[in-house]
């Protein structure tokens, strides 16, 4: 019975042919049940305790050096003295002890260039963390012997599409084939493997759909989706997405994905947000970032200063100055590092909505949720030189 219908007690109208019932989609998130339950319990404890701000994922960048120069990356534009810096094992593990986030994502740069990354991974696992090690996979087969399969450890391989699309995105031929070979080798040894896929405005939904099918066929357990963030200092600044083009792209992609059983690593409501069905504000403290300079303010994507400690980051950052509608640099951002924590909170507050989207997938037709207004945002400020000098001073002080 439709309790919102008018004329509830009127005689029933003539029976019409029923529309086919919407069938559930295979939208299961590629995260082990134990991990889902532990993170869910952690989030619930934070809410019940009245915590205003808490971390969900610790983003750790043990170095900025990389062995690729991807066109859309703004993470590696540093002088050699910074690129040669490394986060020590002791400092990395101390940072994990500082930050109570249940998940640690190790990114970069290319983490496998760090000679002691295996020790950092083992230390994080010994502390009961769920660890995701990001890599472009160029060194993965060579380094596999340094790691052991663990239900709490996942390789996250950077793959931005099929052979042509990925090799173009990373500006080097042959990287797709190397990554695929490494994925197969890691799966053969019993490792969990996901892929991280960043989409730009030249992404073709049909080609991406075929690529997702292929990825699952070679053993990839989950796909992390991200619209490319408009880094100020990325080599290619012409292919970043606006909010509207992001929503249109992901609606097209999810429409093609119905019935194909793709497994995404993100929450159902974050995917719903990408499809334009949610109005979310950013939660920048949800994924605090520790790199060779210190704790980056305000978020993983935007470096506008550093704190020496996690507590200083959380207590002294001017959080109200950042986010969509507040700062021009944040205007088009819809990346999971800022919005997944928001979606997780919404999931806790509206579990039935989250379950419905998880079962049937994001809505791909009809009106979109309104965007946050941008008329009050402060203009972007180029702080690269200033922030670089601040970071360098911390490098000298801390001896990294």
Automatic annotation (TrEMBL):
<keyword id="KW-0949">S-adenosyl-L-methionine</keyword>
<dbReference type="GO" id="GO:0046872">
    <property type="term" value="F:metal ion binding"/>
</dbReference>
<dbReference type="GO" id="GO:0051536">
    <property type="term" value="F:iron-sulfur cluster binding"/>
</dbReference>
<dbReference type="Pfam" id="PF04055">
    <property type="entry name" value="Radical_SAM"/>
</dbReference>
<protein>
    <submittedName>
        <fullName>Fe-S oxidoreductase</fullName>
    </submittedName>
</protein>
<keyword id="KW-0411">Iron-sulfur</keyword>
<keyword id="KW-0479">Metal-binding</keyword>
<keyword id="KW-0408">Iron</keyword>
<dbReference type="InterPro" id="IPR013785">
    <property type="entry name" value="Aldolase_TIM"/>
</dbReference>
<feature type="region of interest" description="Disordered">
    <location>
        <begin position="1"/>
        <end position="29"/>
    </location>
</feature>
<dbReference type="InterPro" id="IPR050377">
    <property type="entry name" value="Radical_SAM_PqqE_MftC-like"/>
</dbReference>
<dbReference type="InterPro" id="IPR022563">
    <property type="entry name" value="DUF3463"/>
</dbReference>
<dbReference type="InterPro" id="IPR058240">
    <property type="entry name" value="rSAM_sf"/>
</dbReference>
<dbReference type="InterPro" id="IPR017833">
    <property type="entry name" value="Hopanoid_synth-assoc_rSAM_HpnH"/>
</dbReference>
<dbReference type="GO" id="GO:0003824">
    <property type="term" value="F:catalytic activity"/>
</dbReference>
<dbReference type="Pfam" id="PF11946">
    <property type="entry name" value="DUF3463"/>
</dbReference>
<dbReference type="InterPro" id="IPR007197">
    <property type="entry name" value="rSAM"/>
</dbReference>
<feature type="domain" description="Radical SAM core">
    <location>
        <begin position="49"/>
        <end position="260"/>
    </location>
</feature>
